[in-house]
Amino acid sequence: MTFRSPIKHCRECGTAVVYRTPDDGDTKQRAVCPACHTIHYENPLNVVGTLPYLGDKVLLCKRNIEPRWGKWTLPAGFMELNESVSQGALRETDEEAGALIELEGLFSILSVVRVGQVHFFYRARLLSDTFNPGHETLEARLFSEDEIPWDEIAFRTVKETLECFFADRRRGQFSIHQIDIP
User: Fold this and answer.
1) Three-state DSSP class for residue 129
2) Which stretches of 7-64 are DSSP H helices?
3) How far apart are CA 59 and CA 51, in angstroms?
4) CA–CA separation, 78 vs 4, rounded Å?
5) 24 φ, ψ (degrees, to nearest 5)
6) pTM of the entire structure?
7) In contact, 127 and 92? CB cutoff 8 Å
8) CB 76 within 8 A of CB 47
9) Cα(62)–Cα(68) distance, rounded to whole angstroms?
């Protein structure tokens, strides 16, 4: 069961769709238009963001929006059309934290099956310790590992990404982490 509402009307002609297995050999039920026969596919949404760090500290943003208002998160949000994953991560970091960063590479890919999302986080080196958070953020602040408010982290994807980051840092080598969250 996904988080989004089912498709109700055809995007091509406006007719009410029916959910059935298409006649083209597909094996899943899809929204099919009985009038123009368009098959509508529902795909996961991409969430893109960064794990900004400066020395031994990471940047977290305190949310000023729901869900999870007042909880801490990494700067991230939904990827927009006409942007790459890295462009979206840079945009979200600017919008939420007002932070100057340099991307260092993809760090974590987390599939959140129950809500139909895939989260991508890049490691990002902060170029300044001055932040200018946007309207979605109450506060942007640097935390060392022992200062992180672990019980106040907004999302499991963020907690998992932070745990991987600190474990990799202790090991002295960063790798890409792929995590499935049912």
Assistant:
1) coil
2) none
3) 7
4) 14
5) -95, 15
6) 0.91
7) no
8) yes
9) 10
**Which pair of tokens denotes residue 64?**
């000023």
Q: Which two tokens stand for residue 51?
A: 């794990």
CA distance 124 to 106: 9
Per-residue pLDDT of the chain (182 residues; tens, 9 = 90+): 445 688 999 999 999 999 999 999 999 999 999 999 999 999 999 999 999 999 999 999 999 999 999 999 999 999 999 999 999 999 999 999 999 999 999 999 999 999 999 999 999 999 999 999 999 999 999 999 999 999 999 999 999 999 999 999 999 999 999 999 99
Q: From 133, 125, 131, select the one nearest 95 (Cα to Cα).
A: 133
Any idea which residue has 């959140």 for tokens? Answer: 112
CA 122 vs. chain centroid, Å, equals 11
Strand locations in the chain (E): 18-20, 30-32, 39-40, 45-54, 57-63, 72-73, 76-78, 101-112, 117-126, 137-144, 177-181
76: tokens are 């991230």
